[in-house]
Design a protein that fits this description.
- There is one protein chain.
- This protein is mainly β.
- The protein has three helices and 22 strands.
Length: 302
Amino acid sequence: MFYVAKVIIFLFQFLVIVLSVFGQTPEYIDIRVDYVTPRIRSLAANENTTWNASICSNAQERYNGTTAVVNFNLPLNLDWNPSLGVVLATVSNSTSLAPVLCRNDNGSALGNSCTFTYQTAMGPNIYIAIQAVHGTKDGVFYSTGITFIESGSHLPPVQHAKLTPRQENEIHEMATRPGSQKAVDTQSLVPVPRLHPGIVQTGAAVYYTLSIYLSSSRFIIEIFIVGVGPGDAFSSYVCKAKPCASDNSNVIMSDVSDSSLNALTISYDQIRPTGTVYVLIVGFGGKEENQFNLGAIIKNSI
């Protein structure tokens, strides 16, 4: 019985190979990536800093025409009380902060987000210049990030810090102060792939694309496929280029455990210079459909 099961699995794998190589060109599903601060940060009153999201060329094409939502989180001031410290932010695709893509200042209030339509012509770098406004002796604690959503999608409501006329004047003075209109102390936002739910038929395959840009080769990417229910099982392959098939030279890592948990780890160097990785998932469960969650974690290898 064990031998028969192994033969069946082999035939499934062979079928996937044949379809990958000789069948129709498979459709690759894009895994969206958000860009976030690696942890909560703090700024002293009136101190400023800049964050940079570096978007690889493949992702630039996919995000063209989407709405970029730039979020600002104040974990110790959820109500955005100005007296407790808030942040003033300017978003641009240039270190000179011109042109301005969006700001969280509407003249009478500071908001926890701002939006703009991303265009490929804007280039790979988006800069978020942040300045602390007021704050306690411990400073203003914050995090920020960018997420891309399809144009026309529902946007979360913006929470505002209502400003007094005096505070409005202070913010205007801060925004127009010499030296404030340029990126300073630039740090990199970390790309975070979104968790992606999926379904694959037993004996069939699904394909995914993940595009990221990292500033250093010392990073590793951990990709995992986790079955949702009992009997969900998979084998998976990670490729550096198309076509992604289980038997060709594009494969750089595989997990053929035919289990409910697949884990694959690669170094960023293995997918340079494109920054794009392709994932092939084959269903091998004991039922017709196999449900899973596909995710990825980016870690510093040092």
